[in-house]
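hey can u check if this looks right to u? its 164 residues, i copy pasted from the old doc so theres a chance i mangled smth
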Amino acid sequence: AGYTHAFFLTFADEKGRQTYLPHPDHKAFGGVLRPHLKKVFVIDYWGTEDAVPTPHLKHAVFFKFKPDADKQAIAATEKKFLALGTEIDCVRHLEGGENNSPESHDQGFTHGFMVCFDNADDLKKIYGPHPEHTELVKLLTPIKDQIRVMDFTVKDDFTVKDSD
């Protein structure tokens, strides 16, 4: 869809997210970006702490399902995607879930997943053609409307710890 940059933020809990959203620094950041954006895409989900060392490759995948997609088929797809973390050896960390963002920038996408690899070759040569991944694609194909994928190598692992 023409997106070029991604920012991923992690909050300890809902209180942290609720503090961040109206925060003046968040609003100022949006003000700096806004003149350079055609559109914004936001999706939130509750995950687990990423234990993959920097640098590594993140494979971010977002799903928008057809309006008439069967709810059980969506649930089976979500379950299968999350299982890839234990079924494919090169996956270092996998998390994801259903969108729960209070913002209105999801453009109808309902699920987000983050898959971490040591490098791009693991994604391309092992994960992509792996039979378990191929099975996921077969489950997804009849019910998907759109998929967005963004891969990037983590350049900086800036972690803010609560002072409480």
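DSSP finds five helices and four strands in the chain.
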